[in-house]
Specification:
Helices cover 31% and strands 19% of the residues. It is of the alpha/beta class. The protein is globular. The protein binds guanosine-5'-diphosphate, 6-O-phosphoryl inosine monophosphate and magnesium ion.
């Protein structure tokens, strides 16, 4: 087994892109299996900052194959514009090193418009989405009226699919007194992009099957985070895909096992609305925001900030079958006198050791904290575990104890090389020995 899955253990932006980039040095292929360009994965190489939305984080390394699986909601315009912006920076992205599943449902202008219409209708109850059309595209996929990448090559099929799609969207648009959309308009929109996108289309499931048989090393790059999962997250304040590790199989066609690594921030952030038990709407939250530079990668919104929540991360580990954790952004805590970890919740005289599903209870949970002395030392850019402050090690050990699985790597700086190995990856399956 040479497959690794990277998933976010909080509400996204845990530093997955940086970690996938780090591990991909020794991999052959990186695969996205859900989400779309709502993701924003930052990688810093030699002071150049790359923000990837749809492209897997291997595109920055030469000789790697990048794959977009069928589980991704594909905005063809966004993909082409991302490819072009990287070409300008000297990256060679072509159909030999980028492959996109022919089954991907396409995000079109109707989806972005529908998302905006419904977010506006919801007034004070907005989800706070990224406005990329992700939710409406997945709705159409499940409603069996999506246009898929493979439909672009067949004019008859495309015509029929467009009729079905527009029957639905125009009924809603009429109901909201919004302008109806003509088929010719949609056809023009699609024709404009079809030629550019068709060369990348491939039977990804089959290619992955071959890669597995050839013993290639494959990394599956999760987007978003566990508590944005449509089934397991803080519903309805979630994204519209499954973000946990089991989605790898449906979202790519992989049929073999994979070793799951979870990425968590040393504190917690969330962008958009919804419950957040350890949120700090005070000086602590402001400091985490400022020091951690917590501005959303996609929407440039302020990320809400709070203490590390061990209850959440433990639940995420259980949901994805995570075997190893990577803890990021420890340097952001360098200047804090006291640092807290949430170890449980209190609600209505009861103690919870998990996040209950009800939104109204989630909003009312009172976190129970353990407090730790800070290390008050600069760790940004540190690469050696021996040089880390004692209090930082104690903090990491306590997190490890509370979560119940090993933390193999930590990171204390945004750059590609800012990674500290705490333990070697040595497992019975020997998957990670070579990483
Ligand atoms: P992703 O969506 O999980 O890939 O994470 P994002 O890229 O959206 O957000 C993580 C942010 O933290 C990015 O700006 C990274 O450059 C930055 N980052 C990642 N790891 C570290 C770290 O260890 N320390 C600091 N200070 N920044 C980090
Ligand atoms: P990465 O991969 C953080 C959030 C949005 C909103 C909710 C639904 O960079 O970690 P959507 O547009 O998906 O329908 O929005 O999900 N969200 C993210 N938050 N990181 C992400 O991705 C996110 N992708 C979506 O802010 O609250
Ligand atoms: Mg992000």
């Amino acid at each position: 087994m040479n497959n690794i899955v990277i998933v976010g253990l909080q509400w996204g932006d845990e530093g997955k892109g940086k970690i996938v980039d780090y591990l991909s040095e020794n991999a052959d292929t990186v695969v996205r299996f859900q989400g779309g360009n709502n993701a924003g994965h930052t990688i810093v190489v030699d002071d150049e900052v790359y923000k990837l939305n749809l492209l897997p984080s291997a595109v920055l390394r030469t000789g790697k194959i990048s794959i977009i699986g069928n589980g991704v909601a594909l905005d063809p315009y966004a993909l082409i514009s991302e490819i072009e912006s990287l070409r300008v920076k000297g990256m060679d992205i072509n159909p030999n090193n980028l492959m996109v599943s022919e089954s991907c449902p396409l995000i079109l202008s109707v989806h972005k418009e529908k998302e905006k219409l419904f977010e506006d209708l919801n007034g004070n109850h907005k989800i706070g989405t990224t406005n990329k059309g992700i939710g409406p595209c997945y709705e159409d996929k499940v409603g069996r009226r999506a246009i898929r990448l493979c439909d672009l090559e067949n004019a008859d099929e495309l015509n029929k699919r467009l009729d079905t799609l527009l029957n639905y969207h125009n009924a809603i648009r009429k109901g909201l007194s919004y302008r109806v959309i003509k088929k010719e308009e949609m056809l023009r929109e699609i024709e404009e992009i079809a030629e550019k996108i068709i060369p990348y289309r491939k039977p990804v499931w089959k290619i992955l099957d071959d890669f597995v048989k050839e013993g290639k090393k494959i990394i599956f790059e999760g987007a978003q985070g566990t508590f944005l999962d449509i089934d397991h997250g803080t519903y309805p304040f979630v994204t519209s895909s499954n973000t946990i590790a089991s989605q790898v199989m449906t979202g790519s066609g992989l049929s073999s096992n994979a070793y799951v690594i979870g990425v968590a921030k040393a504190y917690t952030t969330r962008v958009g609305n919804g419950p957040f038990p350890t949120e700090q709407r005070n000086e602590v939250g402001n400091s985490l925001f400022t020091i951690g530079k917590e501005l959303g990668t996609v929407s440039n919104r302020k990320r809400r900030c709070g203490w590390f929540d061990a209850v959440l991360v433990r639940q995420a580990v259980q949901l994805s079958g995570v075997s190893s954790i990577i803890l990021t952004k420890l340097d952001v805590l360098d200047s804090f006198d006291k640092i807290k970890i949430c170890t449980g919740y209190q609600y209505s005289g009861k103690i919870y050791d998990y996040l209950p599903a009800s939104r109204s209870i989630q909003e009312e949970l009172e976190p129970i904290y353990e407090e730790f002395p800070g290390w008050k030392e600069n760790t940004q850019g540190e690469k050696l575990a021996e040089k880390l402050p004692v209090n930082l090690i104690k903090y990491v050990k306590r997190v490890e104890e509370l979560i119940g699985i090993p933390i193999h790597l930590i990171s204390a700086g945004p750059k590609r090389e800012d990674v500290i190995k705490l333990k070697d990856f040595k497992f019975s399956e020997s998957v990670l020995v070579s990483y």
